[in-house]
Structure formats: structure tokens, C-alpha cells
Write a structure and sequence with these properties.
CATH superfamily of the largest domain: Aconitase, Domain 2
Structural class: alpha/beta
CATH class of the largest domain: Alpha Beta
Shape: globular
CATH architecture of the largest domain: 3-Layer(aba) Sandwich
Number of helices: 9
Distance between the termini: 54 Å
Largest sheet: 5 strands, mixed
Strand content: 15-25%
CATH topology of the largest domain: Aconitase, Domain 2
Number of strands: 17
Radius of gyration: 20 Å
Order of helices and strands: EEEHEEHEHEHEEHEEHEHEHEEHEE
Number of domains: 2
Helix content: 25-40%
Length: 318
């Protein structure tokens, strides 16, 4: 079902061509800039002339628990007046809830009495948007399936974003994941496990995976999310999916049509490696993956778009 190509490839007319098969005259000088990954990354890099490195500012920050407390206390000690970027503060215990709500009210952030997968689902459904970038403490599982890049960051990286500095990174190598065929007897859980196991050997450590191909049209957004979520705990840098099919239906279903944008890989884009997946060869595997999108009754109890805590929770001093 999986085929690895450990050589550079060009994506042309929905197909992959080895670098050795393409004439020099047919190779665009900006081939890597034509990839969907690089188009989104460059849009968030504040130093356009430095092509070998990238310097990001993110659309949204997400942390939870003790990490949120440590990051915000340091920023407050540095005389922070307001969060310069939308910042989601997840919380579970009563102490964490009190601190997160206090920080959201003082500095203009978002409070969410959620953690773990529920927090991840909430961020994906309420804040992710096509072409956006999120910096998260522990990842947001399936944002990539929505055309939204999510990087994991240390406390230092959050400190830098709150000081309006940048997340600096050498321009990453790219892996094209070309999906073909349709699921017949198999399911997305088998594809997800197979892909996760295949990249867990570290061969794509620090590299971005971009998903494209005719097979995407046969996948529901739930199936895309299941495959993407399986890669969250691997050492890949991030994932990015073409959004011309499936994603619009998802954003329409949660009443966020404005978050959708049709994005796809351009002809002539260059990738350092490739993986081909034939969905028709997938087998059956039990799956417990489920996305929680939260109902309207829950959304009405909000502070800055997120649920308020129990009224008995007292605000914390920051």
C-alpha cells in the first residue's frame, strides 16, 4: 500500500516525476516555492529575503496547565500589557482554571476549561483555518487535515512570540504524500496506522509532509482527520493537506464557512522525498477515533469564544 521514494520529485499534472526524469529547461527556478507548504510558511515568515531560513509569527498560540502558568507569569514579570497574538489557555484543575481565566481577562486571551484531546478538538473546530499557522504546546492532532499548519513549541518559543519575536527555523525539507485510489474493503484506521508505523523510524524527522493526489476526493473529512492525527506523536515537523475536496463540507457543517480556502499544490513543485499511498490496498482495522465538535448549547456559555468556568472559581492574582 505504501511506496517510498527517497529521491527528489516534481509534482506535475497530479503525478510525480523523479528529478532525473525532468529536463533542466522544464525545472522552474522557484520549484520549492510552488509547494503548498512553502506558500503557507513564507506567508508567515517576516524576513522575505532570507530564503534558506524562516522566521515565523503565528496566528494562534495554544498551551495548557502548568505550562500556561509558567509562560504567562514570565510574560507578566517582563511587563506584558496584552497578548499580541490570539492565545488559548487550556485548563483542567480548579487552580489552572482560575489562572487561565484571569490571564484571559487581563491580557485579552481565550480561556478553555479543556485539556488533552478535547482541547485539541476545540482548537481545530473553533480556531483552525485554511492557510493559518498554530503554535501549540503538545500539538493539535488533526489541524493539518484542515490545511492549517501546527508546530509544537517549547516554553521559550512561546515567550518569544509574546515578545513579538520569531520562531526561527531552517527551511525544512518536504515530503509529498500522494494519495491514490479509493477505500474499498479497508478503512482509514489501517492507512493511519500503516503511515504512522512507517515514519516512526525517524527517516522524516524534522520534515513536513504535504498530502495531495486524486485519492483525497474519496476521503471524508473525518477520515482525513484520523490519518493526520496518527502522525501527531511522530518526529515529523508538521503536516499540510490540500483542501480542494472535503474540507469545505467540514467548515460548513460547523458554521465556519469563512475559515475555508481552496488550496492545492501547484504544478512544478519540488519535494525532497515522496510517499505514494494506494487506498484500494488498505485492509480493515478497528478504530476508536472520533472528533468532538461541541454543540451549540456548550458554545453559548462562552468567554472570548470559550466556555466560562464554574462561578465558584475565584480569579487568581497574576
Amino acid at each position: 500500500m505504501l511506496q517510498f521514494i527517497d529521491k527528489g520529485v516534481y509534482f506535475t499534472n497530479g503525478e510525480l516525476k523523479l528529478k532525473s526524469q525532468v529536463k533542466d529547461a522544464e525545472i522552474p527556478s522557484d520549484a520549492k516555492e510552488k509547494t503548498l507548504c512553502y506558500r503557507v510558511l513564507r506567508a508567515h515568515s517576516v524576513r522575505d529575503k532570507d530564503l534558506s531560513n524562516m522566521h515565523f509569527r503565528f496566528d494562534t498560540l495554544v498551551t495548557a496547565g502548568e505550562d500556561s502558568i509558567g509562560i504567562v507569569k514570565k510574560a507578566a514579570a517582563d511587563d506584558l500589557q496584552y497578548f499580541p497574538v490570539p492565545y488559548v489557555l487550556g485548563a483542567e484543575s480548579e487552580q489552572e482554571q482560575a489562572f487561565a481565566l484571569s490571564a484571559a481577562k487581563r491580557f485579552g486571551g481565550f480561556y478553555a476549561p479543556l485539556c488533552g484531546k478535547e482541547l485539541s478538538d476545540y482548537v481545530c473546530t473553533r480556531l483552525a483555518a485554511c492557510g493559518n499557522m498554530i503554535l501549540a504546546q503538545g500539538g493539535t492532532e488533526w489541524c493539518g487535515a484542515l490545511g492549517c499548519v501546527c508546530f509544537k513549541g517549547s516554553r521559550d518559543e512561546f515567550d518569544k512570540q509574546l515578545r513579538v519575536q520569531t520562531f526561527d527555523l531552517k527551511a525544512p525539507e518536504l515530503v509529498m504524500v500522494l494519495i491514490e485510489g479509493e477505500l474499498t474493503d479497508g478503512n482509514a484506521a489501517f492507512v493511519a496506522k500503516s503511515l504512522r508505523d512507517a515514519v516512526s523510524d525517524g527517516r522524516f524527522a524534522g520534515k513536513m509532509l504535504e498530502f495531495a493526489g486524486s485519492g483525497l476526493a474519496s476521503l471524508t473529512w473525518q477520515q482525513r482527520a484520523e490519518i493526520d492525527a496518527a502522525l501527531d506523536e511522530t518526529v515529523c515537523l508538521a503536516t499540510m493537506w490540500n483542501t480542494e475536496t472535503g474540507v469545505k463540507d467540514f467548515f460548513d457543517s460547523i458554521r465556519r464557512p469563512e475559515a475555508f480556502d481552496s488550496m492545492k499544490a501547484s504544478d512544478g513543485g519540488y519535494y525532497d522525498y515522496a510517499i505514494k499511498i494506494d487506498l484500494s490496498k488498505a485492509e480493515k482495522l478497528d478504530s476508536t477515533f472520533e472528533v468532538k465538535t461541541f454543540d451549540n448549547k456548550f458554545l453559548k456559555k462562552c468567554y472570548n469564544g470559550f466556555p466560562i468556568p464554574n462561578p465558584s472559581v475565584k480569579l487568581a492574582d497574576i
